Amino acid sequence: MIYFDQAASSFPKPKEVVDQMIDVVTHLGANPGRGGHQLARKADMIINETRNKAAALFGCTNPKQCLFYPNATIALNQAIKGLNWQKGDHVIATSMEHNSLRRPLEYIRNNFGVDVSYIDWQENDEQFIQSFQQEIKENTKLIAITHASNVTGSLIPIDAILEIAHLKGILTLVDASQTAGHLPINMKKQGIDMLVFPGHKALLGPQGTGMLLVEGEVLLSPIHHGGTGNYSESIEQPEAWPEKYESGTLNTPGIAGLLAALKHYEKNKTEIVPRETILIQKLYNGLKQIHDVQVYWTDKQPKQIPIVAFNVKDISSQELSMILDSHYQIAVRGGLHCSPLAHQTLNTLEQGVVRASINMYNTEGEIEIFLQAIQQIIDAYENI
């Protein structure tokens, strides 16, 4: 199997990730923060080490404000729904948002009367930044923005947006679901108030892991309530971080795997970007040379994470994905990718797109096989 669906979930995982998870399940198995015995203490040490590692890698000042969730979606829900919304508040996002960010925004629009603006993304940084500036109002409370499109891989110019937000005193939330593990991120230096990322994509960690990192003083109400291990005498949710936002037993095996993944990223991050850039450029250039292939990537936007979105003729993207899977043993993703706003922007709501996404474990040989497969499929359709 050639696996070109890395933007959905990375595969394979580094050996140290797998080994660490097996070790925890086999030899630990205790609840972190629930009990004073040695196994519980060891589990707690893994949790705390992972917080510290995430804080160091992503520039978050206080590791206690590095929060664990089952995925980035729940972390985004906490970040958005946890703010104190009032009727008439205003949020700015982009037309490339994943539903994991858009749907919580629509929730606060419908339930609290919050005004939400989606800035159209047309692969033009200067125009996009200008549109953002023009949309800011006196009541703009939050800028919630994806770092890169999960459909096209286009990088959004977040640094300029973050600088504008900082000058205006507007809170910022960055969805790094597609960039954490591909690109360096530093919350303190870049002015990110809240950062969300999953463990299972470019970081090469396990599914069932996600984090919300909060820099500085951000007032959030927890969206979940329950047992926190500490402060059991109180019937109220504790005020201390991280307990206030982490009810229930944490996924210790998953977080142990995430810790191994963060260490793997720290060790290899200087090699990841050049290799991925070479591979995705080869894939892009190869697809552009094939007749009847439309690639949704412009040379005006050179900054790109390793994703290429494309269509072939008028073939359904899901049909093409099924052919690649069943006849060529190649895994890609077809459809709308949980991002209908992005497809509305691309005018691909009806057909969707085929998304091929790679990482450091893919090879040039796999890309050559993939390009040959696309050409063969086109030839077969022309002969029908």
TrEMBL record:
GO terms for molecular function: cysteine desulfurase activity; transaminase activity. Residues 2-370 form the Aminotransferase class V domain. SUPFAM superfamilies: PLP-dependent transferases. Keywords: Aminotransferase, Pyridoxal phosphate, Transferase. Its EC number is 2.8.1.7. Gene3D superfamilies: Aspartate Aminotransferase, domain 1, Type I PLP-dependent aspartate aminotransferase-like (Major domain). It catalyses: (sulfur carrier)-H + L-cysteine = (sulfur carrier)-SH + L-alanine. Its cofactor is pyridoxal 5'-phosphate. Belongs to the class-V pyridoxal-phosphate-dependent aminotransferase family. Csd subfamily. NCBIfam families: am_tr_V_EF2568. This is cysteine desulfurase.
